[in-house]
Write a structure and sequence with these properties.
By secondary structure, the protein is mainly α. 72% of the residues lie in helices and 0% in strands. The protein contains 18 helices and no strands.
Length: 443
């Protein structure tokens, strides 16, 4: 497989603060405002147990990702790690699942954010406009991406802080409920694991830092620290919110919510004035996650194009802004088409499947690293890999089938491309006179 060796590099312009902010923007998206309802329906009063499982799997995956990023500080994340440590096929499948699955996620995210802000008739135009504006920000350079992400993250954290304060004040005034059911959920431990899968996807964006590894200063130190810091902040934030939602609303009311549990929390706490602010902030958070995700898909596409796994023009780097501008434009165009043609909000389970496959490859790659490169014990990478498999097994069957279909299409695409490349090489050899007179011999 040919690899591009003489390639324009991206500029290392991101410091620790920038990397942490991009990680936070990736994780604190619209999911934090909505994921609690399906998670509570699965786990009931054991919601915190589901969060703990999700946090452990995320910690194991983050440890493997940070360890690999320190060794391979390049664009591409698990695509690059899988290719270098496991071979071309695992790397390709990780990258393919990420690029295709997350492109669909971006379309769904844009539509979801627009739904918070405008009537139904205006959702698609606003979603398209948001994609174009955020892609434009990314095209201006990675520092503009980081600055915009910092503004969005600040706004979202302030509003979430108000929700937490309101919940705590309301709880101090009325006290906790007299009886909080402690029985296992109807689905048992399967329900806990299913809730863990849902919660895991709500804050699995820490890998976005690794996909931008080629643009981080002092990557061997900065990337692992940024991943650990951003993940720690988000897990702590989610733990506080989960506790307040269970204590103020209760498991039954939380599971029966209409999809806006943080708004319900604000109203139940006596801070009803905060409800419209929370709704608007959900859209802002979704746009922040979309901004970081666009950058991540563009960098993974760049890495794959360098290795000729995707069309070579996607590896183009702008000489002034030093961003993969062709890849960024191509990704934005694909998302706009998806937004205009189909509503993917209810049919992106395969993206969850792809994320788990992505981290499975990362953990498997980390397991192959020698002791001198290890920053985390080998058993933790093994636990992360097992966790990915377990959580994948709890996904709805439609999500698993959709994910397998995406990977099947990717495998067919690669096999076809390899066959075409082999045929072209053969034609070139024959044209160059490498074949004996009379043509190739058969048998």
């Amino acid at each position: 497989m040919p690899t591009v060796t003489d390639r324009p590099a991206l500029a290392r312009r991101l410091g620790l603060r920038d990397a942490v902010v991009i990680g936070l923007a990736s994780m604190i998206g619209a999911g934090v405002f909505a994921v609690w309802v399906p998670a509570a329906r699965a786990a009931g009063p054991w919601l915190v147990a589901g969060l703990a499982v999700a946090a452990f799997v995320a910690f194991a995956n983050a440890s493997s990702t940070g360890q690999l990023a320190a060794r391979y500080p390049e664009s591409g994340g698990a695509y690059r790690y899988g290719r270098e440590r496991l071979g071309e096929w695992p790397g390709f499948l990780a990258g393919w699942g990420f690029v295709i699955g997350k492109t669909a996620s971006c379309a769904a995210m844009a539509l979801t954010a627009a739904a918070y802000l405008v009537p139904t008739a205006w959702e698609k135009p606003v979603a398209v406009l948001a994609v174009l504006v955020l892609a434009g920000v990314n095209l201006l350079g990675v520092t503009r991406t980081a600055r915009t992400a910092a503004i969005i993250v600040t706004v979202v954290l302030v509003v979430l802080g108000l929700v937490i304060i309101g919940g705590a004040v309301g709880l101090s005034q009325v006290g906790p409920p007299e009886h909080l059911p402690a029985a296992a959920p109807d689905l048992g431990w399967y329900g806990v694991l299913q809730s863990a899968g849902l919660l895991f996807f709500a804050f699995a964006g820490y890998a976005r830092i690794a996909t931008l590894g080629e643009e981080v200063r002092d990557p061997e130190r900065t990337i692992p620290r940024a991943i650990a810091t951003s993940l720690g902040i988000v897990v702590a934030l989610y733990a506080v919110l989960a506790a307040l939602l269970l204590l103020v609303l209760g498991p039954a009311a939380l599971a029966a919510s209409d999809g806006a549990p943080l708004t319900d929390l604000a109203v139940a706490s006596g801070w009803a004035w905060l409800a419209p602010v929370v709704a608007a902030t959900a859209a802002v958070a979704a746009f922040g996650a979309l901004l970081a995700l666009l950058a991540g898909i563009g960098r993974t596409s760049l890495a794959m194009a360098r290795d000729r796994e995707l069309p070579a023009p996607l590896a183009s780097v702008h000489p002034r802004t030093q961003v993969p501008w062709v890849a960024e434009i191509a990704v934005a165009a694909a998302i706009v088409v998806l937004v205009l043609v189909v509503d993917l909000r209810g049919a992106i389970g395969f993206s969850s499947f792809g994320v788990l496959a992505y981290y499975l490859v990362a953990n498997a790659a980390a397991l192959t690293q020698p002791k001198a490169e290890r920053r985390a014990p080998r058993w933790l990478s093994a636990a992360g890999a097992i966790g990915c498999l377990v959580l994948a097994a709890t996904l709805p069957i439609t999500a698993m089938l959709g994910g397998l279909a995406v990977f099947a299409v990717g495998a067919a695409y690669r096999l076809l491309r390899l066959r075409v490349a082999t045929r072209r090489r053969g034609d070139g050899e024959r044209a160059g006179g490498s074949e004996p007179a009379g043509g190739p011999r058969l048998g």
